[in-house]
Design goal:
By secondary structure, the chain is of the alpha/beta class. The protein has four domains: 171 residues, MoaB/Mog-like domain (Molybdenum Cofactor Biosythetic Enzyme, Chain A, 3-Layer(aba) Sandwich); 53 residues, Molybdopterin biosynthesis moea protein, domain 2; 80 residues, Molybdopterin biosynthesis moea protein, domain 3 (Molybdopterin biosynthesis moeA protein, domain 3, Beta Complex); 79 residues, Beta-clip. It is built from eight helices and 29 strands. The strands form eight sheets. The protein has a seven-stranded mixed beta sheet, sandwiched between helices. Strand 21 and strand 22 form a beta hairpin. Helix 4 crosses helix 5. The radius of gyration is 30 Å and the shape is elongated. The N terminus is likely disordered.
């Protein structure tokens, strides 16, 4: 790949908006990963690579929607000829006017059935029934193919499969499907100060929280994780490690060394490894310094080193690249409407994301969210009590209790 010059968005007026950064991260991805065929039982959480057409109609035959009587006409009285339960082979002879069959929910209907009468609206005496009220023609009949016809697309390409998709594929008799192969994501932390959790720390050292955090966030069926360890604050060694990682991974996610300090070597190391990138200063707080580019065949996303900043930068920017690689159409997270249960000064020119919890709702039913902690991109404790992130828009003078703000629930943010 041709080495390109480093572009720093701080060199142009203003910062890159969150929306522009999301679009930029997605556009770095040239194409999604390849495809493979996977059995039905292993499809949940994977991303479909091709449309799946139904080989059978759904329902596969006319059947009763409830327990009752299949009627050969809407006459007030009928003679009962047969009894059919779900799984029965059915009958070949068509019902004639004045004839009926006792049917259970799911039972195949005899030819000539014009309606199914609910058993609660029928009086039976021996082998005959009388209708208390006649059903409408076609009532309580599930017709063959009324849900899905043969050849209808039941699962489109480019969707994250879940229990709903597995259900309709199974109902149609499909036993396997083409899905995108797992995206190989390498996680690397940078910094001489970092120590793996479990090892003793001394003065100036801290445990690495970012790789375990990101690994937990990305532990999904569509992803294969590779632990790339901790890289030192050494430009040449970091360049070597980035080059090695780009041969193994579709996406390399680093944390730390994305700013412009003397020990922030990621940008130079990527270029030294033959890569290309942009150092995007994003108008969000925290998470402003985010690196996005390519290293060899891999896409590279560089997150800030502080844990909360790394989390926000991944959720708001980095995941757009992963979605594109996985074969999904990137869908940037959209905050829900909420109201503030706190007051503060405005965040200036950057959109602020802060740990928050829901503490009730206002008169209109919108959630009231309370900001937690004293702020700071390295603080993790407020996240434990949080339900999501309060989103305070850029450019406002301040926030007062009852003001409209945004809210990103963690449940929505964590899923690929």
């Amino acid at each position: 790949m041709t080495v390109t010059a480093l572009k720093d968005f701080c060199a142009v007026p203003g910062l890159l908006t969150v929306e522009a950064a999301q679009a930029h991260a997605a556009l770095i991805v040239e194409r999604p990963v390849g495809a493979e065929t996977v059995a039905l039982a292993s499809l949940s959480g994977r991303v479909s690579a091709a449309d799946v057409a139904s080989p059978t109609p759904l329902p596969p035959f006319d059947h009763s929607a409830m327990d009752g009587y299949a009627l050969g006409s809407l006459d007030p009285e009928h003679r009962v000829l047969a009894r059919l339960a779900a799984g029965a082979a059915g009958v070949r002879d068509a019902l004639k006017p004045g004839e009926a069959a006792r049917v259970m929910t799911g039972a195949p209907l005899p030819p000539g059935t014009v309606a199914v009468a609910m058993q609660e609206r029928v009086r039976r005496s021996g082998g005959r029934i009388s209708l208390e009220s006649a059903p409408a023609e076609g009532a309580n009949i599930r017709r063959e193919g009324e849900d899905v016809r043969v050849g209808d697309v039941i699962v489109p390409a480019g969707v994250r499969l879940d229990a709903r998709h597995v259900a309709i594929l199974a109902a149609a008799g499909v036993t396997e499907a083409s899905v995108r192969r797992r995206v190989v994501v390498g996680l690397m932390s940078t910094g001489d100060e970092l120590v793996r959790p479990g090892r003793a720390i001394g003065p100036g050292l801290i445990h690495d929280a970012n790789r375990p955090m990101l690994a937990a966030l990305l532990a999904q069926p569509a992803i294969e994780l590779v632990d790339l360890g901790v890289a030192p604050d050494d430009r040449a060694e970091l360049a070597r490690l980035v080059a090695e990682a780009s041969d193994r991974c579709d996406l390399v996610v680093t944390s730390g060394a994305t700013s412009v300090g003397e020990e922030d070597h990621l940008a130079a190391a990527v270029l030294a490894a033959g890569g290309s990138l942009e150092l995007a200063r994003v108008a969000m707080k925290p998470g402003k310094p985010v690196v996005a580019g390519r290293a060899g065949k891999a896409v590279l996303i560089g997150l800030p080193g502080n844990p909360f900043a790394a989390l926000v930068a991944w959720l708001l920017v980095g995941r757009s690249a992963l979605e594109r690689l996985a074969g999904l159409e990137p869908k940037p997270l959209t905050p829900l409407a909420a109201v503030a249960a706190f007051s503060q000064r405005g965040p200036g020119g950057r959109t602020e994301f802060a740990p928050a919890r829901v503490v009730g709702s206002d008169e209109g039913g919108l959630p009231r969210v309370e900001k937690l902690g004293r702020g700071g991109s390295a603080r993790l404790a407020p996240l434990i009590a949080a339900d999501g992130l309060a989103v305070i828009p850029a450019g406002v003078d301040g926030v007062r209790q009852g003001d409209r703000i945004g809210f990103l629930p963690f449940e929505a943010a964590a899923e690929l």
